[in-house]
Every structure is written in structure tokens, then in C-alpha cells.
Amino acid sequence: MNSLEIKITNSSDLPFYQQIHDQIKSLILSEKLASGSVLPSIRFLAMELDVSVITTKRAYDELEREGLIDVIMGKGCFVKTDNSQFVHERLSIELDKALDELIKHALLLGIDYSELIRRLERRMKENN
Predict the structure, then answer these.
(1) Phi and psi at residue 71, to the nearest 5°
(2) Which end is more exposed in the chain, N or C (fewer Cβ atoms within 10 Å of the end residue's Cβ)?
């Protein structure tokens, strides 16, 4: 297992760089990787995952473009320290997408508004 617990697979439809990107992004958004955390170097992660340096660099470049990490030449790669607002916005967007899917499923099952709210309230109570 590698230091970030990233798993890549040939059976995925996603290219390796995207699998790496998505998993690191998920770790950041879920705050399993805290602000300021040091990421493995591009070379080290490539070696751990048995992929090319170009693959890990592409994943890190995407994360940097999205504002999730800082890549500082000669120093390393770090989770941005000022990303709490970004994390909140991204989680809010993901919640909206999940709610859209929930509504689609509810409509397919013939569940009306009041039943959906009742179920949601019950699940919220169960999870708090």
C-alpha cells in the first residue's frame, strides 16, 4: 500500500492520472488530508504506484489548477492552507448533485415530496 492509500486499476475506464487525481481530491475534500499536509513527491508517488512520472505530474497539475494544492519547486507539494472556503463550495456542489440524483430516483419510484422529506428527516436523525 502507498503512503496516500491510493489504488489504481487497469480495469477502470479512467486513465491512471485521473484515478490519482480523483482519489487525492477526495482525500482533500473529505479533509482526510489536512490543510498544509505534505504530499509525496511526484517521483516518489510514481514509483509507489508503478506509473510514469508524467502520469503523477499530470494528476498534480490538475489539482494545482483546481486550487487544491501548491507545487513549490524545490520544496514539494502541499495541500493548500487556504482551501476551507473552496472545500465548502465543492462539498455544496457535490451535495446538490447528490440531491438531484435522489430526486430522480424518488420520482422513478413514485415517491412524493412529503414522503421524500419524511425519509430524509428520518435518515438525518439516524445519522446524527
Answers:
(1) -110, 115
(2) C
Sign of CA dihedral 24, 25, 28, 32: negative
99: left (phi over 0), alpha (psi -120 to 50) or beta: alpha
- For residue 83, give the 3-state DSSP assignment: coil
pLDDT, mean of residues 4-31: 92
Quote the CA–CA distance of 41 and 28 in Å, as a whole number. Answer: 16
Q: Where are the domains of the chain?
A: 16-79, 84-127
Kind and range of the H or E run holding 87: helix 84-109
**Mean pLDDT, the chain, integer:** 90
Report which of 6, 29, 37, 26 is spatially closest to residue 89, judged by C-alpha positions: 29
Nearest to 27 by CA among 76, 63, 73, 65: 63
Residue with the three cell numbers 428527516: 121
Q: pLDDT tens for residues 34-76?
A: 889 999 999 999 999 999 999 999 999 999 998 899 999 889 9
The beta strands (E) that lie in 52-126 are given as 69-72, 76-79
Fold of 16-79: Arc Repressor Mutant, subunit A (1.10.10)
